[in-house]
């Protein structure tokens, strides 16, 4: 007989504060990322992970054989804004616990949601090339952060996220989309930075700054690497004039074409935590 899941307990956990140490905040400030253990329980990851996985395969439209895909397409299945597709997924995305950690690390009074995205690297899936996320975002301030949540323990063979420490301050490569070119150029340019490419334990998550360069290896295991992410921005973030076609698309899709110079405060970008 299957055990009954008490979803009330899970919802409470998602909204219970997490104590972010001064050391973790200082580490994030200096290195541009931080990995935190025991942020989410196995029960949370199992329950919401199953729902997220069902949505990914229901909504996924990338069905080409792996050998016919581009480097970007081989990196992962990418499904965005699950919170608008399912009320239970919304509970996970709107977690005050996860948003509070983001605010603490960025040292801001509150955060808005930019958007969420599931990133599922299939077995035989390729590398995720070096890139900085904020290349895609028409946001004026560097006060942006992504939480990367593996829905299972993620050993090296599954392709965990890797970080070029302190690279959030480097200017080179900020005009590169995720591509073979970004992988080649940044592999050479980032040799001066220490690389953190360790595995993730179950319940361990990472937060990284919008301009921090990061990548992931291929998934050479026989199981999909299932990851959920949320991108947060300072609640007082301002929209800037898009600088490339990707930023124009993001401005229209994720920011509801909010006026340049304004705070993006439409229903698409709710405040998820405020002090």
How is this structure best described in words?
There is one protein chain. It contains eight helices and eleven strands. It has one domain (26-256): Jelly Rolls, CATH 2.60.120.620. Strands 1, 2, 3, 5, 8, 10 and 11 form a seven-stranded antiparallel sheet that branches. The radius of gyration is 18 Å and the shape is globular. The protein is α+β, with helices and mostly antiparallel strands and 275 residues long. The mean pLDDT is 94. The protein starts with 6 loop residues before the first helix and ends with a strand.
Short description:
Its cofactor is Fe(2+). The protein has eight helices and eleven strands. With 275 residues, it is of the alpha+beta class.
The tally of helices reads: 8
Q: Tell me, what is the CATH class?
A: Mainly Beta
CATH topology: Jelly Rolls
* Structural Rg: 18 Å
**CATH homologous superfamily classification:** q2cbj1_9rhob like domain
**C-alpha geometry:** globular
Main sheet: strands, sense, barrel: 7 strands, antiparallel
| Through-space gap between termini | 44 Å
Ranges with pLDDT <50 over ≥5 residues?
none
Tally the structural domains: 1
- Give the DSSP E fraction (strand runs of 2 or more residues): 15-25%
User: Can you write the helix and strand succession as a string?
Assistant: HHEHHEHHEEEEHEEEEHE
The percentage helix is 25-40%
The second-level CATH architecture is Sandwich
């Amino acid at each position: 007989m299957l055990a009954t899941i008490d979803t009330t307990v899970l919802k409470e956990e998602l909204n219970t504060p997490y104590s972010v140490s001064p050391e973790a905040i200082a580490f994030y400030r200096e290195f541009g990322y931080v990995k935190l253990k025991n942020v989410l329980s196995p029960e949370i990851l199992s329950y919401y992970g199953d729902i997220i996985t069902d949505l990914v395969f229901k909504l996924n439209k990338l069905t080409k054989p792996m050998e016919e895909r581009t480097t970007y397409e081989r990196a992962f299945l990418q499904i965005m804004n699950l919170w608008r597709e399912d009320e239970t997924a919304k509970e996970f995305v709107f977690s005050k616990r996860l948003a509070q950690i983001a605010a603490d690390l960025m040292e801001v009074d509150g955060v808005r949601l930019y958007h969420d995205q599931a990133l599922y690297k299939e077995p035989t899936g390729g590398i995720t090339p070096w890139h900085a996320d904020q290349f895609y975002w028409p946001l004026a301030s560097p006060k942006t952060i992504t939480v990367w949540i593996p829905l299972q323990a993620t050993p090296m063979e599954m392709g965990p996220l890797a970080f070029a420490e302190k690279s959030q301050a480097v200017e080179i490569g900020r005009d590169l989309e995720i591509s073979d070119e970004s992988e080649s150029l940044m592999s050479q340019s980032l040799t001066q930075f220490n690389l953190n490419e360790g595995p993730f334990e179950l319940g361990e998550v990472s937060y990284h700054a919008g301009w921090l360069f990061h990548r992931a290896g291929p998934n050479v295991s026989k199981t999909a690497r299932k990851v959920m992410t949320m991108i947060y921005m300072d609640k007082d973030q301002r929209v800037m004039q898009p600088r490339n076609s990707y930023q124009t698309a993001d401005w229209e899709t994720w920011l509801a074409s909010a006026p340049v110079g304004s705070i993006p405060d439409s229903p698409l970008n709710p405040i998820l935590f405020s002090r």
